[in-house]
Amino acid sequence: REISRLEVLRGINTGELFTWSGRYKALMRDYGVPLFVYYWVTWTSMGLLTYTAIEVGGLDAMQLIANFDGYTGFDLASKVDPQLGKIGLALVTNEMLEP
Q1: 37-50 burial, b if ≥16 CB within 10 A, otherwise e?
Q2: Is 0.70 surpassed by the pTM of this model?
Q3: Nearest CA among 49, 52, 47 for reference residue 95
Q4: Which whole-number Å values give the CA distances from 89 to 5, 72, 99, in the listed order?
Q5: Percentage of the chain lying above the pLDDT 70 cut
Q6: Is there a contact between 71 and 41 (Cβ–Cβ < 8 Å)?
Q7: φ and ψ of 80, to 5 deg
Q8: 34, CA 20 to 30 Å: which among 16, 68, 76, 79?
């Protein structure tokens, strides 16, 4: 128990827990491979379901990007491929819905 607390403190002090690789190293160290696999299967399936919902539901990702451009003043809509826009929207939505 004390070793686990010291590992967390070391990770905070070195900044390791604030990186992707550091967080997943801690996940593997603390909980093992089964939880790691469960997490990635859950994340991937949610992402695929989100993309399918966008594709089947007919959500226009380019229109959403254009609305975002209007709020921020950027010009992303002219630079983004429509298919990649759907994938990007699915990734962003998946991160917001992440279990």
Answers
A1: eeeeeeeeebbeeb
A2: no
A3: 47
A4: 38, 17, 17
A5: 98
A6: no
A7: -105, 130
A8: 16
